Predict the structure of Ferredoxin.
Amino acid sequence: MISFTVEDRNGERQPIEIPEGINLSLMEVLKASDYTILATCGGLAICATCHVQVLNGLDALPEPQDAELDMLDTLPDADSDSRLSCQIRIDETVDGAIFRIKSEEPI
């Protein structure tokens, strides 16, 4: 199992366990876990509405690609530990990570 923690916009944390070998992005897991993530573009890294902050485990994740970095540059609250959840694949690199949802809550 792959285990990581999600902190919602209210600061509440919830552990999540996902079977290994599942081919999903963090965004897809967040949506399936009933977190309110807009994810307007559906995972193409062209909207930044799935912005998360990596509180723990950033160094283990693969480097962001140019498209993700370009979108993060458009966000006023993005920092060096910001990522788009649609670009993070659920695999052993996220085991033990802590993600904080940063994107605005959909209306």
Notes: The longest strand covers residues 2-7. The mean pLDDT is 94. Residues 2-101 form a domain with the Ubiquitin-like (UB roll) fold (CATH 3.10.20.30). The chain has one domain: 2-101.
